[in-house]
Write a structure and sequence with these properties.
The protein is α+β, with helices and mostly antiparallel strands and about 130 residues long. About 35% of the residues lie in helices and about 20% in strands. α3 packs across α5. The chain is globular, with a radius of gyration of 15 Å.
């Protein structure tokens, strides 16, 4: 299990604290301009965990530890994090309603979905599909 470090809630302090701790920070979510299109996702080859959420979402932040730990045990998975919100085409095309939503894809096709995971096992179970 990953250790917890109290870095406060201020975004700058939070990022600086993790940078100083030696713990890898979670990658930021891709913005609307950076995010792949649905056609790009459909064309992906191999195993992909597609995560929808935001950096400011408490549920999304809480899920980062379990997601990172699960992916560390399953290194064959590519992980794409896409910032979601009202009117965002990619999230709407998958009918995402709550954050974070994790889609398990093989060759661009959805195999499983996990909404608001709270434990490593929630994510690992989906990755075992």
């Amino acid at each position: 299990m990953l250790g917890r470090i109290d870095c406060g809630t201020d975004s700058f302090k939070y990022h600086a604290c993790f940078a100083d701790s030696g713990i890898a920070m979670p990658a930021p979510y891709l913005t609307e301009m950076e995010a792949p299109s649905r056609a790009d996702v459909d064309a992906l080859r191999g195993l992909t965990l597609l995560e929808f959420g935001t950096d400011w979402c408490g549920h999304c932040r809480a899920a980062q530890g379990p997601v990172a730990e699960a992916l560390a045990q399953q290194p064959q998975w590519q992980h794409l994090k896409v910032e979601d919100g009202p009117g965002r085409a990619l999230g709407r095309s998958y009918r995402v309603k709550l954050w974070p939503t994790l889609l398990v894809l093989r060759d661009g096709q959805e195999l499983a979905r996990v909404v608001r995971p709270t434990a490593v096992q929630d994510v690992l179970t989906a990755l075992m599909v």
